[in-house]
User: Which sequence fits this backbone?
């Protein structure tokens, strides 16, 4: 080796080579450890699930609980959003949303949205808070690096980009919902993210807004809902829209409706009553086709099944009773555990899910939550 015109002895060259090998090996080992940890987190191996709800107080915070097999929920931490809540439940679905390894939360009292990184084990790290593009944000959804928030104060939606460092509002993305909109309840994306969907309980309509190449949405296209009072919704494995009808179906009781999502409109597939009152919150287990509906006024959970064509079957009008007013739902531990947020009283209840989808008797898993607690999601890992 020649260094500045001088020859370097062979023993130095050999030691330098050994040092390079050792350093490279250490870097590879460290990288493998990180990749292994991230892979285990992504696969949901070894850590159970973490359940999150939004405290929604003046100093808003996300409350995290660890769910482990054979046990209840164990408090993990409280994570400030950097924004303000309203002090009372928002009465919407989607106050929290999951985007890969990120968690989004609305701050209805300060008109903003917060973004957290989800760390291995379920702890959160606040990446940033950004304006919601309107007033009274009550629901947020994400698809890839694109998020949209529903601002109930002005019946608008607005877009945000998810970055490694926080949220960036998308210029020109704020768009009004359809004329006559009343009491919007939830925002979400279609399968593949080409459409933004908003349910509107008061006007009995469901809006679609096409997503353009820059993340801005087009004009809202309204479809009259098949059932009355469309409220919460989810997608099944085939991408059908499954919606709770709080004000009833053909027989006047709470119901669930399903739709095919088409460009420029929805195709109604069917509506099935459940004999309960105020079906508001709904979640689909895409692996099994089980649909769980929280009937707020009845304090009950109904079980449906949705098949490959989006057709609904009522399996049990009452698969569980909550002992209170259910205000959101989540599935955890690989679909083996059901969680429901109950108000008043600030309690998260839990039940085991049987092979046929039926729930075991519900029991309290976490108590003493803030009175305004709203939203419920679960992340495996």
Assistant:
């Amino acid at each position: 080796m020649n260094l500045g015109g001088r020859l370097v002895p062979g023993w130095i060259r050999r030691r330098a080579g050994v040092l390079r090998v050792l350093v490279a090996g250490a870097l590879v080992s460290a990288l493998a450890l990180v990749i292994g940890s991230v892979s285990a987190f992504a696969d949901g191996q070894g850590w159970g699930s973490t359940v999150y709800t939004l405290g929604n107080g003046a100093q808003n915070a996300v409350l995290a609980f660890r769910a482990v097999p054979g046990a209840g929920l164990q408090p993990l931490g409280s994570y400030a959003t950097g924004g303000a809540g309203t002090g009372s439940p928002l009465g919407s679905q989607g106050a929290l949303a999951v985007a890969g390894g990120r968690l989004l939360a609305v701050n209805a009292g300060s008109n903003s949205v917060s973004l957290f990184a989800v760390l291995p084990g379920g702890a959160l790290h606040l990446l940033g808070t950004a304006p919601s593009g309107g007033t009274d944000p009550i629901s947020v959804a994400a698809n890839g690096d694109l998020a949209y928030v529903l601002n109930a104060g002005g019946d608008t939606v607005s877009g945000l980009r998810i970055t490694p460092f926080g949220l960036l509002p998308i210029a020109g993305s704020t768009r009004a919902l359809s004329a006559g909109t009343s009491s919007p309840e939830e925002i979400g994306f279609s399968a593949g993210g080409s459409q933004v969907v908003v349910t509107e309980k008061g006007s009995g309509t469901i809006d679609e807004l096409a997503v353009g190449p820059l993340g801005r949405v087009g004009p809202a296209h309204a479809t009259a809902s098949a059932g009355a009072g469309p409220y919460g919704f989810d997608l099944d494995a085939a991408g059908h829209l499954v919606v709770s009808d709080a004000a009833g179906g053909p027989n006047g009781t709470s119901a669930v409706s399903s739709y095919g999502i088409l460009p420029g409109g929805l195709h109604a597939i069917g509506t099935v009553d459940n004999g309960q009152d105020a079906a508001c919150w709904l979640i689909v287990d895409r692996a099994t086709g089980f649909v769980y509906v929280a009937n707020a006024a009845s304090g009950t959970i109904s079980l449906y099944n949705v098949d490959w064509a989006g057709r609904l079957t009522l399996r049990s009008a009452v698969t569980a009773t909550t002992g209170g007013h259910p205000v959101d739902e989540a599935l955890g531990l690989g679909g083996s555990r059901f969680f429901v947020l109950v108000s008043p009283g600030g309690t998260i209840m839990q039940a085991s899910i049987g092979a046929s989808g039926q729930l075991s008797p519900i029991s309290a898993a976490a108590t003493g939550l803030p009175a305004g607690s709203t939203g419920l999601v679960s992340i495996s890992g």
Residues 167 and 353 are 36 Å apart (CA to CA). Residues 10-43 form the longest helix (34 residues). The radius of gyration is 23 Å. Residues 1-46 have pLDDT under 50 and may be disordered.
